[in-house]
Fold:
Amino acid sequence: MNTSASQYYGLPYEGLWPDESSPEWMNKGDNAWQLTATTMVGMQSVPGLVILYGGMVKRKWAVNSASTALYAFAMVLLCWVLWAHHMSFGPMLIPLVGKPGFALSETFLLHQSRLGRVPMADFVYYQFVFAAITVILLGGSLLGRMNFYAWMLFVPLWLTLSYTVGAFSVWGNGFLEKYIIDYAGGYVIHLSSGVAGFTAAYWVGPRLSNDRQHFPPNNIIHMLGGAGFLWLGWTGFNGGSPFAANIIASLAILNTHICAATSLLVWVSMDLVVYKKSSVIGAVQGMITGLVCITPGAGIVDPWAAVLMGALSGSIPWYTMMVLHKKSAFFQSVDDTLGVFHTHAVAGVLGGLLSGVLARANLLKMMYSDSVFYAISRGGLKGTLKQTGYQLIGAAFITAWNAIITSLICIFISRIVDLRMNEEDLEIGDDAAHGEEVYALWGDGERTPSTQRRWHMPPRIPSICQRQ
Structure:
């Protein structure tokens, strides 16, 4: 992932004639794997996070939470091909970001990417699903109260002003590209989403007191289905980063699942020891922290290191979420609905630091060829400590940039539309936000009469009979 932007744009558009859809430079196996891996990542968002969010929240917020993910996926795609891809991976505008531009032309999409023997269209597609899931993940901090109109504005603004800077700085020939190990997005994706989600949650404000104190999932089985898409989809998330069906991809996939399984079991064990019960939601959280933690180093650490990373990702984020969060006035002051800060920001930083310590020099060379600039490649304790320092600097930059830019975006949007739904609509939920409810419990899709609603509020949209 750390290959410089100049390597993506240097090859001429040649060898592709009207009757030749498979030019000599393209490897069909790599191309097939890349398209498959990318689609697996896309399915983590749609339907994965759509189902996970819809099942993990209180019943009255199921439709709104699912639609939050669905809208973001579609909006990010259009923004990505119109300007954001080039801002993330195109020619440098400044050391923080590339020049905006279209990623739509045939001459651009069908020439070879030097990242692998695949068309440039594969790279655009792959990076789009990464960008989309980042925005959707941060949305998990805002469920249960954000005005959907504000979310519609937030998505393109945050993608443009925040995500592109992180992607370009670390992956796209920016100022951190030669120093930071981030194999598949521990910093660019997970730390960004965790910090931005927590920051946005501060500006949007908390859920209703009753919702915050009592927020049971409306469908745990659906939640597990969404979690399954997320877990298995991570095969493409980390396995697709080499842009080739090679041994690094194979190692990354195995390490990914080892770390996730270890983290899940450690999280469940912690719940059993402390609370005397295993929590299904806790198991899902442990799975996620394991997947996040291994992401920065999936293809460049040994399997034994994946076990160690899983043990730490199942215990340290557990402590910050289940113990520190409850004791800290700072954490209590911000309503992070699904605990995205702990599952993604904490686990992302943990994975980034551990990657600096545990990465193998020979695997780094296999992944990055002659572009290895990491101190760790020189070997020895001094090189490892120096690389860990670089990792800390990268984490600090991503954290600061996302906190500042997300705050400015929220302040700007608040001048246009309310960030938070009004109190009356917060009592109602989905019906107020979308005119729909997750389950048709009254007749064949008809609305439940207002007198039977447990919140005892009149319907916002009168029926046809009432209008007549």
Q: What stands out?
A: Residues 74 and 215 are 28 Å apart (CA to CA). The chain has a mean pLDDT of 88. The longest helix spans residues 380-414.
